Amino acid sequence: MLTIVWACSSDSEGEEAVINPGLVAKFERNTMLTNWADNIILPSYEAFALELDGLNASFDAFKTEANTANLENFRASWVSAYKMWQRVSMFEIGPAETVGLRLNMNIYPADSQKIDGYLATGVYDLSLSSNRDAKGFPALDYLINGIGSDDVAIVAKFNEADRDANFAYIDAVLNDMTTLTNGVVAEWKASYRDVFVANDGASATASVDRFVNDYIFYYEKFLRAGKMGIPLGVFTGTTLPKNVEAYYDREISNELFLEGLDAAQDFFNGKHFGTNGTGESLASYLDALNTVKNGGDLNKIINDQFNSARTAVTALAPFRSEIENNTPPTTMLLAYDEVQKIVPLLKVDMVSAMSISIDFVDADGD
């Protein structure tokens, strides 16, 4: 039987991925796009919108009575919504791409000096791109975890003379997050879902090719580099603990990373949001192509590496502690290596098998 051998870059250490071209026609991209839209993307966005509703409700309770109990509830809602955000952050296509949802929701570290200035003056415009580092989840992290030494001190900030300015700013941040999210969900439901599914061809502008690029870009730049590589100093040689996600919380950076990793693996496997059901996916696409790497099933190799990365990260202390308390942070660097190993599997072997071209420039030497 004829085979095609796809040459790999140095990322793959000389290994080769082999497919059977006769099987390509048996896989329906439209079915995969339908599964992505109806069972993963839209349900995830809807769940995230509900989390934001809960976050707004817990803030309203805190605003009504600023005490430590209500602060703890507000903070718990923030953590829950932040974890759900990890499930939708990768979907930066269509409406989310148009409004720059990811850049407006989760640019960290937050600029605490800028936020303090806005609290003092009461003058700000969160719609400006220059204010992306003063809003979203990181701004809330600062405002509910970082403006005091403990919960009593934080609550005091919301019971002093400038309490109205503090509440007004959080109101503005939450309104911005909610408005952007509801707009994205509405557009998906109104028209973009059908546009996305119908664009089922095999070209650089087709939905599969575009979204696979977005998915890999998210994994490489935002999950691997943003959450681990940059704070570790992988690209600069200097650790940057303040660049850890949820820096002021101190404890949940690992949880956020692992939620993002789970989301990436679940998407790869076509797992329906909120259930154990699965549908056509990148994994089943590779199976349809009968893709083999070094004598092994590429689908299994990718899933095994996801699992290895998860095991390594799960064993770590909170990222901020790993970086601040270890010079160098060797254990976290080793875990990062396991996370990195997924990149060439997706970016070289998987896309080569699917005849998808990478459309973004990689400049970090990995």
Number of helices: 15
Q: In percent, how helical is the residue content?
A: 55-70%
Computed structural class? mainly alpha
In terms of quaternary structure, the protein is: single chain
Task: Count every beta strand, where a strand is a DSSP E run of 2 or more residues.
Answer: 4
Average pLDDT value?
93
| Model regions low in confidence, pLDDT < 50 over at least 5 residues | 1-14, 21-25
Give the overall shape, derived from the CA principal axes.
globular
Keywords:
single chain; mainly alpha; disordered N terminus
Describe this protein's structure.
The protein has 366 residues and is mostly helical. It has 15 helices and 4 strands. It has helices at residues 29-64, 68-88, 95-99, 101-105, 112-121, 136-146, 151-157, 163-198, 207-232, 253-268, 282-288, 298-314, 319-325, 330-340, 342-354; strands spanning 4-6, 17-19, 292-293, 296-297. A 4-stranded antiparallel beta sheet has the order 1-2-3-4. Helix 1 (29-64) packs antiparallel against helix 2 and helix 12 runs antiparallel to helix 14 (330-340).
What does this entry show, briefly?
62% of the residues lie in helices and 3% in strands. The chain has 366 residues and is mainly alpha-helical.
Write the layout of secondary structure elements.
Layout: E1 4-6, E2 17-19, H1 29-64, H2 68-88, H3 95-99, H4 101-105, H5 112-121, H6 136-146, H7 151-157, H8 163-198, H9 207-232, H10 253-268, H11 282-288, E3 292-293, E4 296-297, H12 298-314, H13 319-325, H14 330-340, H15 342-354
Antiparallel strand pairs: 1-2, 2-3, 3-4
Helix pairs in contact: 1-2, 1-8, 2-6, 2-10, 6-8, 9-10, 9-14, 9-15, 10-12, 12-14, 12-15
